[in-house]
Each structure stands twice: as C-alpha cells, then as structure tokens.
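I am writing to request your help with a piece of structural work I have in hand. Thank you for your consideration; the sequence and its tokens are set out here:
=====
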Amino acid sequence: MKQVVKVKRRALAANEERAEKLRERFAASQTLVVNLISSPGSGKTSLLEATVQALDGKLRCAVIEGDVATENDANRIRALGVPAHQILTSGACHLDARLVENGLAEGGFPEVDILFIENVGNLICPTTYDLGEDFKVVVLSVTEGDDKPVKYPAIFSRAEVAVISKSDLLPYVPFDVEVVKAQIASLNPAGEILVLSSLKGDGIGSRPRGEPEGEFQPAEEAADPVPRNRPGRGVSPRRPSHRHVARSRGLGRQRPPGGDPGN
C-alpha cells in the first residue's frame, strides 16, 4: 500500500511540474485557461457552444476536448468556426498536463485570448490533476439531483465557478436550487454560482451584478485590465480574468438567479 501511495505521489508531482510550465506558457501568451469539469451529459459542450456564441467574436477562443472516444464534441465546436482539438484517452477518466501539452502541439492553435479545456466526464478523477488552468468550472445539471455538491465535495470546493445547468427542466425534476447553492457556498464561500440554460437561453447575456456598462475589450486593448495575482500563478496584468470574461457576457457572474450559458 505504501508503494502505491509513493507512485501516485510521484505521478502527481510530475504532473504539477508540467502544469506549472504550461501556466508559464499561458501567462506569456496572455491566454486565460478554463478547465471545465462535470459528470457525463451535464452540458459542458452546450455550455461552450453557448459561450462562444455569446462572445460573438469579441475574444479569440480555442477548445481542447477530452473524451474516451469519438470526435463528436470537437466537431460541434469546429462547426461554430472555433479551432478545437480532440484528445482521446482510450479509457482514462481524466486529462493531465502531458495530454494537454501534446494536444496543444497537435492542435496547432493560433494565438487566442481564452483556451477552454473540456475534461473527461467525471466528478472525481479530473479534480486532482492541474492542467495549468487559471480556474476550474464545475457544471451540475438539474437532472443529476441536488445532493451532488455534498457527495463530491472536492471539485465543488476547488472550482471557482459552479454552473447549475439545464434550468429549463426545473419544473419537471426534483431539484432545490437554493439547497444546492447553500451546499456549494458552504464548501467554497468565495465561489461564483450561475443558474442557466443554453437550450432556452435563460441567463445567457446577463450582465454580472455590479459590473459597469460597456463592452469587453480583448487583453491587448483593455484600458484597465484586472491582474492575475494568485499565489503560484504570477501576475499577468494584461490577461483577461474570469471577471473580464463576465463582461463579455460569456461565462459571466450572476448570483441568484440566472447567469450564463449552460444546459
């Protein structure tokens, strides 16, 4: 048992080293990186589709898709005119920094403002593996039940943004939004919670509470950008933060109710 723990620690340490190099690379290119995590079928790809459409070309985006098999999700993103690269894990339950590094090399993306990484559908394994992202987004659909945050506390405590998706189905399923919000808030008081539906458009394009009027400006044009100043991540004063993305009406911030693309 001790040997298994040691091997796992070495694997995680190697991943952390690679992830830190990726983070430095993203900082140098002024690219905001978002890691989307959820159960299968919660609506990550629909969230990305709705976000890309809401951004409406204001920011340059690219997507890395992680799946066990098929290029279905990458094809959906490409159909919107956004570069996407599919990583097939052949059974592995999560992406890691090495796979992302290889995916970037194979994808040959142009310079982008935001790189979205859609992880393999799983609420457990992807939580542990740093991909060099700026922040994690966890997606929970109302069809999954309102006890998931307490059943899977690790991801809900680590994700800076929690999206409650498929809100258009609330009238038809037993899901208490306020209970879920309270669970998430107890695990991550500083986190942001969005309630939305990409199918119906509910919450998409809503301005975050307290944000001023005006369109989002890409990093190179922003007059007063918000610095990235988290421990271990350095400061990249010209990179768009997730609150900048909020102003673009993509993955925005809105407490309660409403928010941004989901389903």
Summary: The longest helix spans residues 2-28.
